[in-house]
Amino acid sequence: MKNNIKIVLGLVFMAVCLAGCHKKMDYDYSRWYKDPEGTAGGRPVHVMSFNLRSINLDEGTENAWEYRRPAVKAMLRDKSPVLMGCQECDFEHRRNIIADDPRYDAIGVDLHGPDEECEECAIFYLKDSIEVLEHATFYLTSTPDTPSRLPGAKHYRNCTWGRMKLKKDGREFYHFNTHLEYINLNTNPGGITLLQTEMDALRAKIRTINTDNLPIVLTADWNVEENSVIFTGIKGDGFKSARQNALIGDSYKTFNGFGQYGGQTLDHAWFKYFSGVSRFTTVRDKYAGVTYISDHYPISIILTF
């Protein structure tokens, strides 16, 4: 009897010790979650958003594109999205990505116009899965069909869109991909007006293009957090946050600054007329031995019709 009491007391003591030593972990279950067809209301559509980082910014460093290129190739092979909206996509990025993975082609034009070989808000698409029915690029200004930028903006900002058709079942939807102006709102709080003007131009153009009320996914490096006032308008238009509405998701920071900064969440996806999002993932995996495949982590969204 005494031995039984000692055993029970020993087990209780061990349980208390283990509970006291336990450290709560921040698990991200989405990396193991697999979404079968039919879950959450219909056939899934895998879309990504990825800021590639302008190609000329890191020459001569370990973050140069020549070192990150194999990692991007491995990531794309691993994830295989049907669509990937990219920001800061230089002509060489586009040419290299398609050469490394011929399953893909891309749409988009340079920020300054269709004849330049520079930065695009390109959309890569999986040729076996997607037929591009229509596509174009417009600018986030009052003259959207002419290469232009807003007063006070350092860059031309545009949006590339495509009317996409799933070859497997004929379903159609739109993908819009853009990149807002970077403004340090701590030192220039008035810059929010410029961002709001870009958003108003984006919303107006979406309304004129999607007259059939087809499902839409909207990806970008927005250069602001998701709780920013600039998103009030698109929320009013019926868009929902993929991050906030995912059945399985995470809330990791997307801007990593190659590990030099604490990080911010600047990359978001919004959707409308899809039935939901079964999974949202911030892609933080290492590929080809590279810790940071860009100064932004890609985001991955599984949408359902």
Description:
This protein is an alpha+beta fold. Helix 2 packs across helix 3 (91-100). The strands form two sheets. The protein has a seven-stranded mixed sheet. Strands 5-6-7-8-11-9 form a six-stranded mixed sheet. The protein has helices at 2-21, 65-79, 91-100, 192-209, 232-236, 242-245, and strands at residues 44-51, 83-87, 104-107, 123-126, 130-139, 158-166, 172-179, 216-221, 240-241, 246-248, 267-272, 276-282, 299-304. The chain is built from six helices and 13 strands. The termini are far apart. It has one domain: Endonuclease/exonuclease/phosphatase (Deoxyribonuclease I, Chain A). The longest helix is centred in the N-terminal third of the chain and has 20 residues, at 2-21.
